Amino acid sequence: MVKAIFFDIDGTLVSFRTHAVPQSARDALKELRARGVKTFIATGRPKQLMMEAAGDLEFDGYITLNGVHCFTAGNRDIYRSRIPEDDVERLIAYSHSHPETPFVFVHDDTWFITRVDETVREVAALIEIDIPPVRPAEYARGKEIMQIMGYFPEKDDGEMFSRTLKHCTPMRWYPLFADIIAAGNSKSHGIDKVLEYYGISLEDTMAFGDGGNDIPMLSHVNIGVAMGNASEKVQAAADYVTSSVDEDGIANALRRFGLIGG
């Protein structure tokens, strides 16, 4: 029996084409809640950007920043983590020697970026978000940095995470950048924290996702559903592959498993 369902935002709930939640998904979420199924967001977005994308929809709780910050619909914290200060200091030094590489620092429900280039603009347009204010990397000192976004290719991950961000791990859902969080965190870890808080068994869970950062949760929950627009690697981690976000993928899968009518 499915008692809790976790939904990624970009490419899952929200279309990359229309930048909106399909009406079929809106109707499905409303029906799930009417049937007593708890619904949760599980996103890489920080809180403020999550609310911009799905703030008009009702959920029982939220997993943001790839599992780093989990909280209830009433804004009660369930779990939060931060990037170690020594990693932040090493990244500040790295930014001085590599000024061409933009980094975003997320803290205190706000964020800033060290540099804006075409890659930054491309990603902002992809998910229809504003570009954060530009500040020097030193501005991160003394703040609770919960996530960093680094605009560097995956081939640089080895050096970055062995020499600079030694206690962190990358979560990639798009090739142009990486969401970076403290090691040990993931959407699956956030799910465990939320389930513990609500007293729900992992056996009674389902999740929908489309990106590389969704693989941990799709392989962790009882029923992992990959969107039709997901890559082959993401689809391989899921128990079921539905149609794309623009082809009513969420509603179709929920009907397939008998969780909504129609």
UniProtKB/TrEMBL annotation:
Alphabetized GO MF terms: hydrolase activity
PROSITE patterns in alphabetical order: COF_1 (PS01228), COF_2 (PS01229)
InterPro entries from the UniProt entry: Cof, HAD-like_sf, HAD-SF_hydro_IIB, HAD_sf
Cross-referenced Pfam families: Hydrolase_3
UniProtKB keywords: Hydrolase
Protein name in UniProt: Cof-type HAD-IIB family hydrolase
Organism: Bacteroides gallinaceum
Organism phylogeny: Bacteria, Pseudomonadati, Bacteroidota, Bacteroidia, Bacteroidales
